[in-house]
């Protein structure tokens, strides 16, 4: 018999992925110049990149242990964030509210995180993110350059 999900909550979209990278400058170059993302902001040890109208779809953190840091989902509204929080709490997953300062740095409203028990992967849930006024344009469209393979090998 399938277990009831309890109070359902509604997703808007997959919001962003956060990665820890060994070399922030090199990673920015890779995601901008090869993948075509737009750099939308930087703080000490962090970079925000986008491929949509959202402020960010990828967050890069400078760090010693490179890898996937977290995956974030944007929910349809603040009410849905409340529902999701209660859902995970009722399942014993101990959701953790993200501090206001970090939410501000992420340009997001109320945000919480839970860890998936089997893998330890962190998932983030929020409903509000700053939207950029200027539409996204791939940096690949702007540059229209062909780079030799030796250039890309330096980036990866």
TrEMBL record:
Keyword Oxidoreductase: yes
Pfam families assigned to the protein according to its UniProt record, in alphabetical order: Glyoxalase (PF00903)
UniProt protein name: Glyoxalase/bleomycin resistance protein/dioxygenase
Keyword Oxidoreductase included in the entry's annotation: yes
Domain VOC: 13-128
Lineage: Bacteria, Pseudomonadati, Pseudomonadota, Betaproteobacteria, Burkholderiales
Keywords: Dioxygenase, Oxidoreductase
InterPro entries tied to this protein: Glyas_Bleomycin-R_OHBP_Dase, Glyas_Fos-R_dOase_dom, VOC_core
One GO MF term: dioxygenase activity
